[in-house]
Amino acid sequence: MNSYDVAVIGSGPGGYVAAIRCAQLGMKTAIIEKYSTLGGTCLNVGCIPSKALLDSSHHYEDAIKHFEEHGIDIPGEIKVNLKQMIARKQSVVDQTTGGIDFLMKKNKIDVYVGTGSFKDATHITIVGEETTEIEAKNTIIATGSKPSTLPFIEIDKERIITSTEALKLTEIPKHLIVIGGGVIGLELGQVYKRLGAEVSVVEYMDRIVPTMDAGVSKELNKVLKKQKFKMNTSHKVKSVERKGDEVIVKADNKKGEEVTFTGDYCLVSVGRRPYTDGLNAEAAGVKLNERGQVEVNEHLQTSASNIYAIGDVIKGAMLAHKAEEEGVFVAETIAGQKPHIDYKLIPGVVYTWPEVAAVGKTEEQLKEAGIDYKVGQFPMRALGRSRASMDLDGFVKILADKTTDEILGVHMVGARAADMIAEAVVAMEYRASAEDVSRMSHAHPTFTEAIKEAALAATDDRALHV
């Protein structure tokens, strides 16, 4: 039987990063993955493939809507080759997952393909093409999450689908009904909207991306409506039925009236649930809570002291970069170091176009906490860089403490917001004030000038370009 200092169950961003960091710290490490490719949901059927399709569809939309204005004439009809688009997406996935294979070899990490389950707290049974048992002094559970559904919805993976199936459709939907106005639904909805589908979003809450700042939600809603999305908030879905190639969704609106949506595809994107199926956690003394999450303490240690859990399988935002930070945190904890994660400074991003990004507190949270704050906001359309690229929608909003001027939250909608938010994270990590950021030189012309201007606006309302 092979023995290891650390075994990692699950090879998503949290798992493979944890394994690499353990190996870097001199621990003999194994990683267990039930699928034939490493990388988990994120690399195989999540973050990476969805961004590949978002980029491809963005190029197509630019070609049919904006090239002429840029002075680019393309003779003949511009057509979507969905088969090639999906094939390119898959090649991106293959290259990325292949990169993880390389990193495992480079760091001398043993890879086991099969479903890992606990025999006890120090032994793991791996069922694949053959059954293997390994011994591990420490184990990291990184088994991730799966798409959630509603009790009355039967996902047939053909017409009533999750994000996994939406990434490999063989035709462009005529009318895609998206149940859930969160990140996944809006991103994939935009992919197919650009390619010609009618898209109807049906959201239970009174606004889309409801966990984000209300101003951001309102702006994104306005932009998507301009892109011809049909938004239906405050709608409670009560039935989803397939009849041949047709899907019928019935919901009650905020007045309690029944509304019917009819389309050829229905994407169910109502969140994700922790995935612990087959783990046999109880055999190792690992406790789960009522939501199916693995219970952990502040060291991400489970009720079994030598077993840790990270990523989507524990509480907190289901984000790949959160899982990565936790993977490093646990590896360094096992090695006797004293690492730290500031969960308040983990950014959230929606990769629609314009992109949405945020870090820190929302206005609603500051009001609820009774914190006096000030707001600095700057519109993207006031930037020369935005006009040059025709990306005029959105804004940057900075929330700062009214007394100390410390930045408490940054929220933005706009081109390259996903990249720009890192500046806000760095500033807040060092507890910068709005004035600190306002006095930093930002290259001109760039989108990040909006951050400087929003900081100026929060500092005695002295933005320069509005």
Give an overview in words.
This protein is an alpha/beta fold and 466 residues long. It has 3 domains: 2-147 and 273-341, FAD/NAD(P)-binding domain; 160-270, FAD/NAD(P)-binding domain (3-Layer(bba) Sandwich), CATH 3.50.50; 345-458, FAD/NAD-linked reductase, C-terminal dimerisation domain (Enolase-like, domain 1). The protein has 13 helices and 22 strands. The chain has helices spanning 13-24, 40-45, 47-65, 82-106, 163-166, 183-194, 214-226, 320-334, 363-369, 384-389, 417-429, 434-438, 449-458; strands at 2-9, 29-33, 110-113, 115-120, 123-127, 131-141, 145-147, 160-161, 175-179, 198-202, 230-232, 236-243, 246-252, 258-263, 265-268, 272-274, 307-309, 348-350, 355-360, 373-379, 395-401, 407-414. Strands 1, 2, 3, 4, 5, 6 and 17 form a 7-stranded mixed β-sheet that branches. Helix 1 runs parallel beside helix 8 and helix 3 (47-65) packs antiparallel against helix 4. The longest helix has 25 residues, at 82-106. The N and C termini lie far apart (69 Å). The mean pLDDT is 98. It catalyses: N(6)-[(R)-dihydrolipoyl]-L-lysyl-[protein] + NAD(+) = N(6)-[(R)-lipoyl]-L-lysyl-[protein] + NADH + H(+).
SSE inventory with pairings:
Layout: E1 2-9, H1 13-24, E2 29-33, H2 40-45, H3 47-65, H4 82-106, E3 110-113, E4 115-120, E5 123-127, E6 131-141, E7 145-147, E8 160-161, H5 163-166, E9 175-179, H6 183-194, E10 198-202, H7 214-226, E11 230-232, E12 236-243, E13 246-252, E14 258-263, E15 265-268, E16 272-274, E17 307-309, H8 320-334, E18 348-350, E19 355-360, H9 363-369, E20 373-379, H10 384-389, E21 395-401, E22 407-414, H11 417-429, H12 434-438, H13 449-458
Parallel strand pairs: 1-2, 1-6, 2-3, 6-17, 8-15, 9-10, 9-15, 10-11
Antiparallel strand pairs: 4-5, 5-6, 7-16, 12-13, 13-14, 18-19, 19-22, 20-21, 21-22
Helix pairs in contact: 1-8, 3-4, 3-6
